[in-house]
Amino acid sequence: MEKPRQVVRKFLARPQHEGAGAVVRRSIGRFELRYFDPFLVLDEFSVSAPAGFPDHPHRGFETVTYMLEGAVTHEDFEGHRGTIKAGDVQWMTAGRGIVHSEMPAGPGTSRGLQLWVNLYSGNKMIEPGYQEIQSKDIACTSADGVTVRVIAGHAMGVRSPVCTRTPTMYLDFTVRPRGVVRQPVLASWNAFAYVLEGEGVFGAERCAPVGAHHLLLLGQGDGLEVWNKSDDRPLRFLLIGGEPIGEPVAQLGPFVMNTEEEIDMTVNDFECYANGFEKARHWKSQAMVALGVE
Ligand code: FJE
Ligand code: FE
């Protein structure tokens, strides 16, 4: 590593309400940080029944759901359905259109992260698709007090099987007390860290430690150094990076295109059940049927 990246901005993600009674700590996608190319949203969510994220559409990007605790059941308008549990990841390509529900499964609180990754204009209208990886199948390795789970990309000699349309790295590091991480990140990519547990010193050893629910935007460089200076607490953080797309972004909630005209067309497609939204006409999730929602 020649030039370690430094922290250029720090955000504390405070809880806010989203969906139907769910709570999210949103870091990317809020007013102060609208877009961090190619990332549109990062939500740390916490939800228990009957709250959840009932039937809603997406177009023009990917959602990556990574579970920390509990489980989420998803169902979509094509009949695709499944439950993701702690440690599992769902990498969903909305492409031209998905309508689905995401609801907590089982008792207790379900917690996790949802990242929205933008797509290049040429990929926005591709067929929707899913990549689901169970916890036991996630590439994972340990060395010198550092454990990494590789959700996307590669680290410490192991590689994720996930195919990312927009080149992306998504790493989940756990660092034992007094441990240190040195991880290369392509110099041309945008990258950030998000702290899940414990406290870490990011970028330079003299910096103040940063705790849970903080997002750290990283400046230019070819890698990241992180220290766990604690004597007794492990540090867990995500390191996420991606190739900046560099195209205009036009967004209306869950629709992300390049121009306002494309957004108008998308609203029209959704309302008229056209161009990828055909199956939404006669569909309602079982979760909504069970709740008796009209
Ligand atoms: C959405 C409001 C929403 N963060 N984290 C508006 F709540 C959502 C949405 C989610 C979501 C779902 C999960 Cl499982 C986790 C989330 C927002 O579903 F898409 C729009 N447009
Ligand atoms: Fe969704």
Description:
- It is a single chain.
- Helix content is about 5%, strand content about 50%.
- It has about 290 residues and is mainly beta.
- It has one domain: Jelly Rolls, CATH 2.60.120.10.
- A seven-stranded antiparallel sheet has the order 1-21-19-23-17-14-13, with no helix packed on it. The protein has a seven-stranded antiparallel sheet with strand order 2-3-4-11-6-9-12, with no helix packed on it.
- The longest helix is centred in the C-terminal third of the chain and has 12 residues.
- It is globular.
- The model has no long low-confidence stretch (mean pLDDT about 95).
- Bound molecules: ligand FJE and fe (iii) ion.
- Fe (iii) ion binds next to strand 5 and strand 10.
List keywords for this structure.
Jelly Rolls; 294 residues; mainly beta; metal-binding; 6% helix; globular; metal ion binding; binds ligand FJE; seven-stranded antiparallel beta sheet; Pirin-like protein; single chain; binds fe (iii) ion
Q: What is the subunit arrangement here?
A: single chain
Residue stretches low in confidence (pLDDT < 50, at least 5 long) are: none
Attached small molecules: ligand FJE, fe (iii) ion
- In the CATH scheme, the class would be Mainly Beta
Structural class: mainly beta
Distance between the termini: 57 Å
Radius of gyration equals: 19 Å
Please name the CATH architecture.
Sandwich
- Biggest β-sheet: count, sense, barrel? 7 strands, antiparallel
Residue share in β-strands? over 45%
| Assigned CATH superfamily | Jelly Rolls
Mean pLDDT rating: 97
